[in-house]
Write a structure and sequence with these properties.
Layout (H helix, E strand, L loop, with lengths): L7 H13 L1 H24 L1 H32 L12 H16 L2 H14 L7 H32 L3 H27 L3
Helix pairs in contact: 1-2, 1-4, 1-6, 1-7, 2-4, 2-5, 2-6, 3-4, 3-7
Length: about 190
């Protein structure tokens, strides 16, 4: 249920999908799922160790994620507004879609609270087996990934409705504003101002 609630990660998936196509929404969702899997593994196998290490490094990840999203938003704002197919986008843009999802999730306080706070409260981590861990990872892939794919598909369909350059430019600007706002929100939360 948490995966379908609109959040920062949903905004990132829809912004990437609306601006660059379904493939980029999928890659952003994959980044989110990869970070979720990392959190699951940390919760199951190294919660005590990571709790000691995450203090200053966590803030660095949040700053890095916020700055990266702002940079992506500015780049998207300045992007050419000509109509394009998702396969025409550069390879580096695909990796930036994955990194967007990954970094957002690493800095997402909701994900951290769930996986490192609530998750151990629901599951006896001392009794976890490798099979149990794999089952939880599959559930996360289906639950989180599936919900994000639906958002990516809907955003891509909305993008294809708009064929002219002005509409594409407006979508780029809207997606850029969302990414910049998400980046600023992440930075402000890191400072404790929100």
């Amino acid at each position: 249920m948490l995966a379908i609630i609109p959040s920062v990660s949903v905004l990132a998936v829809t912004a990437r999908s609306a601006a660059f196509g379904f493939t980029h929404g999928v890659l952003t969702a994959l980044g989110i799922v990869a970070a979720d899997i990392l959190f699951i593994l940390v919760a199951v196998y190294g919660l005590a160790l990571v709790a000691d290490l995450m203090g200053t490094q966590f803030k660095f990840v949040q700053y890095l994620g916020g700055a990266y999203l702002i940079w992506l938003g500015i780049s998207l704002w300045r992007a050419d507004a000509k109509a394009r197919k998702s396969d025409e986008v550069k390879q580096s843009s695909r990796s930036s879609s994955f990194l967007t999802g990954f970094l957002i999730t690493l800095g997402d306080q909701k994900a951290i609270l769930f996986y490192l706070g609530f998750f151990p409260a629901f599951i006896d981590l001392s009794r976890m087996t490798m099979a149990d861990t794999l089952i939880i990872i599959v559930i996360a892939i289906i639950g989180v990934g599936g919900a994000k794919l639906v958002y990516a598909y809907l955003a891509d369909r909305a993008r294809t409705v708009f064929k002219n350059t002005r509409a594409i430019r407006a979508i780029n600007i809207l997606a850029a504003c969302v990414m910049i706002a998400v980046g600023l929100t992440l930075l402000l939360k890191t400072q404790g101002w929100i």
